[in-house]
Amino acid sequence: MIEVKNLKKSFGSNLVLDGINYQINKGEKIVIVGPSGSGKSTFLRCLNLLEKPTEGEIWFEGELISDPKCKIDLVRRKMGMVFQHFNLFPHLSIMDNITLAPVKLKIQTKEEAKENALRLLRRIGLEEKADTYPAMLSGGQKQRIAIVRALAMNPDVMLFDEPTSALDPEMVGEVLEVMRELADDGMTMVVVTHEMGFAKEVATKVLFMADGNILEEKPPQEFFGNPEHPRLRDFLAKVLI
Amino acid sequence: MGFFEWIWDKIYALLIENGNYKMLLRAFGNTMLLALFAVLIGIVIGVVVAIGKVASAHSKKLFLVRWLCNLYITVIRGTPVYVQLLIFYFALLPMLLKDKNSPLLAGAITFGINSGAYVAEIIRAGIQSVDIGQTEASRSLGLSSFQTMKSIILPQAIKTILPALGNEFIVLIKETAVIGVTSLYDLTKWAERVSSFTFELLTPMLFVSLIYLILVLGLTKLLNIFERRLAKSDRG
What we know:
The structure holds two protein chains of two kinds.
Chain A: E1 2-11, E2 14-24, E3 29-33, H1 40-47, E4 55-60, E5 63-64, H2 72-76, E6 79-82, H3 94-104, H4 110-123, H5 139-151, E7 157-161, H6 169-184, E8 188-192, H7 196-202, E9 205-210, E10 213-218, H8 220-225, H9 230-239
Parallel strand pairs in A: 3-8, 3-9, 6-7, 7-8
Antiparallel strand pairs in A: 1-2, 1-4, 4-5, 9-10
Chain B: H1 3-16, H2 20-56, H3 63-78, H4 81-96, H5 103-128, H6 132-140, H7 145-175, H8 187-198, H9 202-235
């Protein structure tokens, strides 16, 4: 579904991604872990071209999307993204946050989009928040709405960029619960996170990134049970107390 | 001479003698027209230049656009509006127009071009004050950069832009007082003329100060109403 070939990204003279090759298949749940500054967020943001690759190719559903001629706005409709800081639109109600893109892009009529939004809100138990504004929600609620907003476009893949890192500890669970359900429904997911428990439970593959490279890639049992690379062992020793 | 007689004499000399009140109305109209056209021209130029600056900010292709916008803003903000007016009215306009006596037009264009530079910077700063995450979220949903600007960025930027814009217009109304250097008959010119009849400067000057003050207070009030409306929609 997504294929990354020799992806390089540098900011000025700072090389953040150093020639990554990777393939993500439909239905997979890829969890990416690694120390901060390892390039994992940049890698994720390159997948929907929020960051422009310096070099290399990114293919999505048979299309070379890193090509400047590619109509990226059309591709992004199929790739949902959830951000660390939620990025809900503060001037719009929850309902408008969710229906804005499908309606503006003429994918659904206003009525269809509203119905769909209510169905999604019901699923996460926030139906009664439809007419309130983001400022009135807790962090956990905001992030669940952000997930729903991305889902309203019926994407083929969901990208999560540290979705629980900005949350109070007691709100992490509710967001992970929604993500878990999404995984159970068969959604293809790429998740950058520090939640090792989530990686163990949900991932089909766990990637360890450091210094702009994927140093290890394994199913979770092996990844956590039998880490090979010394950098990964060092990392796990620090995060799994 | 009693106090009321004294007041009456002042008012008579200020407003009634020589038909001064008729001249005052004309002067008031000229100041208002000048400020209004200048504000409108300023907004149009400001919006265009701000869009030019924001759109060309990270583009190599639009280098020339960015360069021109920056040149315009730097030169206009770096020179006195009084000097700009002298250059435009006495040097440039006679080259462009046959009818050399069009001070209102010259004033409106000069103050409009001048204000445009400040308006452009105000709008640009407002747009850039909106968190980059808003753009990223919008673009990641598939909205184009134009749709993102219109539906996500500008509605949020307007809250930063409006108060600063109001400030700019307050400054502009008062700055129009230097238009007297041309032949346009504005409020300040009126006060000068009255003082030349009465041989007394203080009363007419205090009187026009009061008129400027009332204009500015009215504008401030209007802006406060707008701002409160915006704040309301914000909280739902």
